[in-house]
Amino acid sequence: MAGVFPGGVLVLPVVPSVELLAEQQRISTAIDDIAIGRWPFTWPGAWSPHMTCAYGLTGPQIDDALAIAFKYLPLVGHLSSGGIEDGSTGENWPSTRP
Asked: How many other CB atoms are there within 10 angstroms of residue 24's CB atom?
């Protein structure tokens, strides 16, 4: 499966495990006091785990990208690490387990 978020953002949805959802809850709680302008879809229960593949695609580019993605899907793998990324600046912080 592949999808497109508003603004021509090509994504590959991730089927989350219980552990991934728990980690997202942990990270969400950890940033509650420092997050500025947090997007509503980053909250637990509203979050859509995904891999972002491209930004700002035009309609024809989306068509081409989806055709390529569907040729190689599904992908199977396991998350071994994660983190937080500022979608505006690209700055990121790796997740560390307590």
From this structure: 19
Surface-to-core class of residue 56, CB atoms within 10 Å of its CB (0-12 exposed, 13-18 middle, 19+ buried) = exposed
Q: What is the pLDDT of residues 36-61, one digit of tens each?
A: 888 888 899 998 888 888 989 999 99
With 0.85 as the threshold, say if the pTM is over it: no
Token pair 């024809």 is found at 60
Give start and end residues of each alpha helix (H) in the chain: 18-31, 59-72
d(CA 58, CA 50): 20
Phi, psi of 29 (to 5 degrees): -65, -40
CA 72 to CA 6: how far, in whole Å? 23
Q: Could you tell me the residue ranges of all domains in the chain? A: 3-94
